[in-house]
Amino acid sequence: MPLYKTIQFNTTTQILVWKITESYQELFESVVVNPTNLIRLSKMKSELHQRAFLSVRRLFQEIGHTDLDLHYDAYGKPHIKGENHISITHSHEFSAIIISNEIVGIDMELQRDKIMRIADKFVAEEFQYLDQNNKEEYIKKLTVIWGAKEAIFKIRNEKGISFKDHIKVQSFGLEDIKGSAQLHFNNHAKDFDIHFEKIENFTLVYAFEH
User: Fold this and answer.
1) Is 162 helix (H, G, I), strand (E, B) or coil?
2) CA distance 112 to 140
3) 207, 192 in Cβ contact below 8 A?
């Protein structure tokens, strides 16, 4: 399908979301893929992952770029020629990118019961404000927390960062659609603003480093 949603966050930040309904062939024929990424694409065992990979290239085209403009630095962070900061995410039938003059990260996650079983792997102090008796809210807030920590990790992308031990998301309300978080790692502290919203049964989260 065409572009699912565009969010103009501010004058220098834009988020684009794609819902992946096309076949692999339809997507492949509609984008340019550089030789290195063609090899990556051919080695992906899941067609869902292949389609997600290609849909991100469709998003690049929406902002006037192709895969030829993309490169990854030594830390594995993506960069697009002519843009200051970019971050990429995909989950099941959705993909999204954020482009900004600010330092940003993005993540999108499916809201599902499974996250309750793994909560203790990425949540620590946040348990103090989570209501485990309210299942629906608990799942939604856990998904925001996971997405925020993933987005922050994409920004910093330093080996050894633990979601549970090093990144803390402050108490927030789902109606707030924003919050704050901190990263404490290697004797350094960084603050982040986080923003989130529900898209169908997914949660989209993006973070800005102060």
Assistant:
1) coil
2) 8
3) yes
Q: Which among 164, 150, 156 is positioned nearest to 188, based on CA atoms? A: 156
- Token pair recorded at residue 98: 């954020």
For residues 129-148, average pLDDT: 98
pLDDT at 168: 98
% residues pLDDT > 70 (the chain) = 100
Distances (CA, A) of 89 to 71, 147, 150, 199: 16, 10, 10, 14
pLDDT digit string, tens, across residues 56-77 = 999 999 999 999 999 888 888 8
What are 19's two structure tokens?
Answer: 């819902």
**Which residues is 199 bridged to in the sheet?**
202
Rounded Cα–Cα distance for residues 178 and 137 (Å) = 15
Question: Pseudo-torsion of CA 40, 107, 9, 189, nearest 10°?
Answer: -110
Contact 125, 168 (CB under 8 A): yes
Residue of 89, 187, 204 lying closest to 148 (CA atoms)? 204
Residue 192 has φ and ψ, to the nearest 5°, of -140, 145
SS3 (DSSP) at 127: helix
Q: How many residues appear in the chain?
A: 210
Q: Hey, what are 3's tokens?
A: 């572009």
